[in-house]
């Protein structure tokens, strides 16, 4: 789908909420978490369950997730989409929901996700597929794949382990201002470097959390959004790109398809990187924000490690990045992209309390799926940006 066929600001997010996060109550299912988040997002919007006529969902624990969600919620949607491309699926769902809403195929779209990967174990929640090209070499996936990208970036551009650690430290500093964040203790660069090694150059503190959790957002057309309970957050631009499935087929380990999805989103929105007030970037590992900051146009290729250092993306720094604490310190229930979106939405609505970015009218939410495989970018704005 070309983002240029969609209309800037034609739809808006009118409700957003998480489910329980961290480690949820025994016998809680992923669909239970979706229901929690959906009811909270509807309450946030002022809409009712029977208003939903579009369902968008991607899950690793429930293969036929749109069917399961519709059945559990007791709704019969006119439009549904189960596109799954990993953690960026929900940014793709934004674009698909916008197309469906513009075309009149539905009037109120629900995008939702749930996972109990901490409770049941990551292996049980997302069983790895046998890869005939890579599995015989016994990589520890997904860390090994991202470690390859980090190692190549270090070799090619002089990026250091300390640079990587600064990403984790900044995320933790933001998380300490988020009451819902899993991690509650301060973190230093030395703590990251001296933690248990997982896959060089990553220690456990370079890797995302393993938590339960889920979320939901509700979208509708802009004309309907203005009469609802809370401030609408408008979809200004979207961009989607796929580059590979297997890390061994990635053309350049230091360049992600964010270099394609970002320009598409900015072109649709009529914006430039410097117009954005905060960035919510998928941080499965400390290398990913570095790659995305480069590929989205915030610093030259190869400069990302130095760009994130010295508190540049931490609270009080020049660029607000991952203000929730991100996947490294807030939560990471498997496919984390919907939580990336929820933080960006809340920042535009001015709901983030101590961590609120001043005058945040435009936020960028970027999703990553697979092993740097799918990249999807969404630009969100307040009414002042229309």
Instruction: Give the C-alpha Rg.
Output: 19 Å
CATH fold descriptor:
Peroxisomal Thiolase, Chain A, domain 1
Largest sheet: 10 strands, mixed
Structural class: alpha/beta
Low-confidence stretches: none
Mean pLDDT: 96
Strand order of the largest sheet: 3-2-4-7-1-8-12-11-9-10
How is this structure best summarized?
The chain is an alpha/beta fold. It has helices at 30-45, 65-73, 89-102, 117-120, 122-125, 143-157, 161-175, 189-194, 222-225, 258-269, 287-295, 304-307, 326-329, 337-349; strands spanning 11-18, 54-57, 79-81, 108-115, 197-199, 202-203, 213-221, 233-242, 278-281, 320-321, 362-369, 374-381.
Task: Describe the fold and architecture.
By secondary structure, the chain is of the alpha/beta class. The chain has one domain: Peroxisomal Thiolase, Chain A, domain 1 (3-Layer(aba) Sandwich), CATH 3.40.47.10. The chain has 14 helices and 12 strands. A 10-stranded mixed beta sheet has the order 3-2-4-7-1-8-12-11-9-10, sandwiched between helices. Strand 2 (54-57), helix 2 (65-73) and strand 3 form a beta-alpha-beta unit. Helix 1 (30-45) packs across helix 2 and helix 10 (258-269) crosses helix 11. It starts with 10 loop residues before the first strand and ends in a 5-residue tail after the last strand. The model has no long low-confidence stretch (mean pLDDT 96).
Name a few traits of the molecule:
alpha/beta; 386 residues; globular; Peroxisomal Thiolase, Chain A, domain 1; 14 helices
């Amino acid at each position: 789908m070309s983002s240029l066929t969609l209309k800037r600001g034609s739809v808006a997010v009118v409700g957003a909420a998480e489910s329980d996060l961290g480690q949820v109550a025994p016998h809680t299912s992923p669909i239970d978490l979706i229901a929690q988040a959906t009811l909270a997002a509807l309450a946030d919007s002022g809409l009712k369950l029977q208003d939903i006529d579009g369902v968008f969902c991607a899950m690793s624990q429930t293969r036929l997730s749109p069917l399961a969600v519709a059945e559990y919620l007791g709704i019969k949607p006119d439009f549904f989409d189960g596109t799954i491309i990993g953690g960026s699926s929900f940014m793709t769902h934004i674009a698909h929901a916008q197309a469906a809403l513009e075309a009149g195929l539905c009037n109120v779209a629900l995008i939702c996700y749930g996972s109990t990967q901490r409770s049941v174990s990551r292996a049980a929640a997302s069983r790895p597929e046998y890869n005939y090209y890579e599995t015989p070499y016994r990589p520890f996936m997904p860390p090994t794949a991202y470690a390859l990208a980090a190692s190549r970036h270090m070799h090619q551009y002089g990026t250091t382990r300390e640079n990587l650690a600064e990403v984790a430290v900044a995320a933790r500093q933001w998380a300490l201002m988020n009451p819902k964040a899993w991690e509650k203790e301060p973190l230093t660069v030395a703590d990251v470097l001296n933690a248990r090694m997982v896959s060089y150059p990553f220690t456990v503190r370079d890797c995302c959390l393993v938590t339960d959790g889920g979320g939901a957002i509700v979208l509708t057309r802009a004309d309907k959004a203005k009469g609802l309970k809370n401030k609408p957050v408008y979809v200004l631009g979207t961009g989607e790109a796929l580059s590979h499935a297997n890390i061994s087929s990635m053309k350049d380990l230091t360049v992600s398809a964010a270099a394609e999805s970002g320009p598409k989103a900015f072109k649709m929105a009529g914006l430039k990187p410097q117009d954005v007030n905060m960035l919510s970037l998928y941080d499965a590992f400390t290398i990913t924000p570095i790659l995305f900051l480069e590929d989205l146009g915030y610093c030259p290729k190869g400069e990302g490690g130095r760009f994130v250092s010295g508190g540049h993306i931490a609270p009080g720094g020049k660029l607000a990045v991952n203000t929730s604490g991100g996947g490294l310190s807030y939560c990471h229930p498997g496919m984390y992209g919907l939580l990336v979106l929820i933080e960006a939405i809340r920042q535009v609505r001015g709901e983030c309390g101590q961590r609120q970015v001043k005058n945040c009218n435009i936020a960028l939410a970027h999703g990553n799926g697979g092993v740097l495989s799918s990249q999807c970018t969404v630009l969100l704005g307040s009414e002042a940006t229309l």
